[in-house]
Amino acid sequence: MSSPFTIVAKAGGSGEGAENTCAAIAAALTVRPPKGARLAVEVDVRLSADGALVALHDATLERSTDGSGRVRQHSLRRLRELRVGGAERIPLLEEVSEQVGEHELVVEAHDADVPAARALVRCLGRLGARERQRMIVASEHSAVVRAVRSLDPSLRTAASAREAWQKLICARLGLARCAPRGYVWMVPARHRGLEVVTAGFAESVRRAGDPLWVYVVDDASEALRLRALGASGCFTTRPRALCAELARRR
Q: Is the model's pLDDT at 171 over the cut of 90?
């Protein structure tokens, strides 16, 4: 693999540890990436009833913890009493940031409202300059992405879903110069049968000087195919297995 290629441990590497926990992140970051690649981490965050940001994906607690009910209805104190995978504590975003160290960290905001975006910006504002530089804020909710950019233009953000569609359409029409730019492009390889990451799309991103990270890729052959198309990284739930397989194929 040629440099650069970023292998992002999705939800801390949820296929190899308890998702979104510091233990999973620590294990993922012990992985030795193949030559020409580097590791990064993605975590999902939700807002507690008292305004804390915790590393959880779902709006409710039943699937990933031993608790029940909506995350937003519980205080941080109550959430900290729960366990993920039967053993691991739900971490604060600040704890995740400390665990990640010098690696890049994608913070995926799952609450759909602007108050949650404000809480995220406040939280990141309390971090040091070096920590903030390695953060990338992402959300499936375009309004949240817009709010984060408005509240703190210095934060790096992923392209919104709307911007990704605009980029895809412009690439298909040969109008790449008209497409949005200046973001990290986090997109699926395919969406509802449509090829998203084509050579044209990847070239449009590359010419803008932006990174293109594709999700979710647990298969080494698919990672190599996307790299050949021009992707600069991929998300994986199994960073250890993927890195090992990519290293064998060098």
A: no
CA angle 231, 21, 244 (to 5 degrees): 45
Rounded to the nearest 5 percent, the helix, strand and coil shares of the chain are 40, 20, 40
Tally the residues of the chain.
Answer: 250
Q: 221: how many CB neighbours lie within 10 A of its CB?
A: 11
CA–CA gap between residue 242 and residue 202 (Å, rounded): 22
Q: Give dist(CA 89, CA 80) in Å, integer.
A: 6
With 60 as the cut, is the pLDDT of residue 186 above it? yes
Residue 202 pLDDT exceeds 80: yes
Q: Which residues, other chains included, contact 165 with Cβ-Cβ below 8 Å and sequence gap of 6+?
A: none
Assign 1 a pLDDT band (cuts: 50, 70, 90): low
Span 71-78, mean pLDDT? 98
In sequence order, what are the residues at sequence separation of 6 or more whose Cβ sits closer than 8 angstroms to the Cβ of residue 221?
none
> Is the distance from CB of 248 to CB of 224 less than 8 angstroms?
no
Q: In which region does residue 86 sit, left (phi positive, over 0), alpha (psi from -120 to 50) or beta (all else)?
A: left
Contact 143, 134 (CB under 8 A): no
Q: Report the alpha-carbon angle 229-230-231, nearest 5.
A: 105
